[in-house]
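Q: Is it fine to ask for two folds in a single conversation?
A: Yes, each is treated on its own. Send the first.
Q: Here.
A: Result:
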Amino acid sequence: MNHAMPKLLVPALLASALCLSLPVAAQTAPGAPAPIKVADVRAADLQLGAQPGRVGRAGVDAGAKAVEIRTPDASFIKVHFEQFSLPAGVTLEVASADGREVYRYSAEHRDGYTVAADLGEDGKSRFSAMSISGPVAVLRLVGQAREPWRKDHGVKVSRYLEGYPEDMLPELGKAGLLNTDVGGKSICGTDNKQAAACYSSSDTQAFNGSKPVARALMSSGSLCTAWRVSSSNRMFTNNHCFSTAAAVASTELWFNYQRSTCTGAQATVTKVTGDQLLKTDVTLDYTLFTVKNFANISSFGFLGLDPRAATANEGIFIAGHPGGRMKELSVADTQNSTGKCRVDAPSVTGNAANSDVGYYCDTEGGSSGSPVIARSSGKVLALHHFGGCFNSGAKISLIWPQVSTYFGGVIP
């Protein structure tokens, strides 16, 4: 049956973003890396439930009309459940307005969800639904209860995460309202980055190498880049993006978050969640982890590792989500005579002496965790984490010995 959808009004997103105060991480020394912020937490007071002691169809006896969380222009909405308890047979649907994206949660089954321990979530009665792309999320109870509704049954939403509009991210970035790390110093001279799809035919190596790269969205609204490594269930990002098992469990990974063509609309996105923390290190700034529903991302392929010493002037490219935007590639570089990204300094100081590879290839906040891919092998030579021109990535030759056991000692 059809239900009316009362609107939940929220402040204009851009006005809020422009009034943001930078978090504590922004007060660290220049160049200290930290994730960027692409969303705000909004308060809510929504309840879906039932008359206690009743048994029947959720839309009838539950007295629960569909509830719509509507924002002016959010890029996504991620709903947090302060309380979740439903009788057998009743399912909560969290969906986009057009119904193309739907996640279902019940006592018997749950689609993808995240658990943010720092927000008091326990993964049982308190957790967060997968994000819904777009400015509207519709919550609706469906099904037929097979047991009486108890007083503790029901769903309560106390907050949700509201993503900044995609088309406003460049302006917000230029105003310094997203970056909490290296800001404009990551762009060396002219900004030469382009949408990944712009290279679909002109540079197939770079385009294909970007496919295993994902947008990593954390529970706080922070964002980094992550990527698949090897044919097994393995992902890399930076330690400064997340470094605990709890943080992995609270993170969504968006694959194919990119334009369908060079100037086209957003392509169809596949979303999964973090699962297990395998290994992390502060000095080399990496985190190796796994995801749930690994089979869902198998079609995007994977990257291998190139654990050798970099060579001066060898060609490279970088794929990631600079500024939190849809996936981009750094291929061109006007800072050197070749006009292409290359290794400009085979060994520079990162978190330790000679720990990094240096390059003028353009990056931004949000590029943290991006793979720096060698042209010669098509494999990852460094893990990007610093800006400053040189920009730099931790050497895979140093990371590999610490993680090799998670690959059976075989270099992917």
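Q: Second one now.
A: Result:
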Amino acid sequence: MRCGVSEVHVQRMAEKPLLDRPQVKKAVQALQAFLKNKASGEALFLDEAQHVSLLFTLWKIPKEAQTIRIPLPHGQRSDTEEICLFTRDEPNMTSDQTQRFYKKLLQERGVKSISEIIPYKVLKTEYKPYEAKRRLLGNFDLFISDDRIRRLLPTHLGKHFYKSKKEPLCVNLQSKHLARDIERVIQGTSLKVTNKGCCCMARVAHSGMTADEVTENIEAAVQTVVTKLRMKGPVIKLIHIKSQTSVALPIYTSDLGHLSVLESKQAQTPKDKESASTKQTKKNKTEDKKQADTTAEGKRKEKKGKKNKAAAEEEEEEIPQLVAIETPIKKPKLEKPSKKKKLEKAPKPAAVKKGTKAQSKLIKKTDSKVKRKVPKVK
């Protein structure tokens, strides 16, 4: 169902153009007039071209982040911008040899927009310090990388490349149409839709372009964004055009049909809730009735069982017979020896024993004295 809803919405957007071309052209002309007046007041910045961007405001915050590549009919970068290319390390070649190899390859394919080539080994060694990374970030306006090393770059570039939205764009350097692919990446743009807010911006043109070229780029960008957004139903609420120093000029505002759809959904939801609640109450009532019936039947069965038991007991009752009671004969108690007598023991003749021992010792001593050998007299 989701795919069907999104396809229907895309078909409607294709049938009815989202933007009014004359209105967009008026906004572009007003923006260019503002930039010219500002440049005339500041003579130092006459030669610098300012970026022209599209600001999209969505009805809802997206659930998932998304990056949309937008091809443009007219190049949105000036010829003075510096572009850097990161390449992989070729086997059995030094960093200088790989640099010369890729320069020769680009010249043969007719690519002239890239100003510097940096192999991966040079990026790891020479641009390892924090200051070198910041210098590299400020020296170039756009970074392109070989798609074979794109997963290795984030650890060596650092977070500042991604915060300033200058992360490298991937290109297949082995393709047969290398010049065309690089020009599409350089002259195209990309829109980053985050799940942290409902606003997103994409660079579309520069102040040195004509009004017709800017309007054509705007129409192409809006069409691709509407078709590639992963959201169902009406998506875009507002579209503005602005430069780096100007106020945002609106070129599209959606009607309130989206709000009517939301209100109809909200009106349907309480009815559904009421119907669900009525169903639950009915179910509860039926369950209560069943429980009451079961309890009543159980009570009736218990009463019937008690009555039957009482009747059986009355039938079984008989007249008790008189029986002579024999008195038990008391047996004479035997005298038990008292505990005190048991505990009394004969005293130990310790003194006698000691005396006897002493007497025996004395007798032995005397015997030894008496039994002395008398020398024989010859």
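Q: Anything structural to flag on that second result?
A: Two points. The chain has twelve helices and ten strands. Residues 255 and 357 are 130 Å apart (CA to CA).
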